[in-house]
Automatic annotation (TrEMBL):
Name of the protein this chain belongs to: Uncharacterized protein
InterPro entries, sorted: Aldolase_TIM
């Protein structure tokens, strides 16, 4: 729980960031970027942006529906669309390749996602 006397104090609290050590302190040498600067100096493959996505609540979707989300991301000026459930499509890699090309034509990048429990191997 964070308490503050004003909205400014609430928004600018450093309590959350002070709860854990920095990634570099937790895993020395694991990260190749400098986390001591503000903002941190991230490698080129880390690119901030906004994404649209279909919630699991609405099912896995299909390529037509995901194409609509790509169009929506483009119209909103968002950088990304996140596609979940793609691995359950009839021909997932072919369909995903087609969607990525479509997204590229709209200036949108694609993030594909799988739930941790779908890829976690505890053996």
């Amino acid at each position: 729980v964070v308490l503050a006397k004003s909205l400014d104090q609430l928004v600018n609290t450093d309590m959350i960031s002070s709860l854990n050590p920095s990634p570099e302190q937790r895993n020395p040498g694991l990260f190749v970027f400098d986390t001591s600067t503000t903002p941190p100096s991230y490698p080129a493959y880390i690119q901030p942006g906004r994404s649209v996505w279909r919630d699991y609540l609405f099912g896995k979707g299909n390529t037509t529906e995901e194409g609509d989300y790509i169009d929506l991301a483009s119209q909103l000026g968002f950088e990304y669309t996140t596609i979940r459930g793609w691995d359950q499509w009839a021909d997932p890699y072919t369909e995903l390749t087609t969607l990525v090309a479509f997204a590229d034509s709209r200036g949108v990048k694609v993030i594909v996602q799988k739930r941790t429990d779908e890829v976690d191997d505890t053996s």
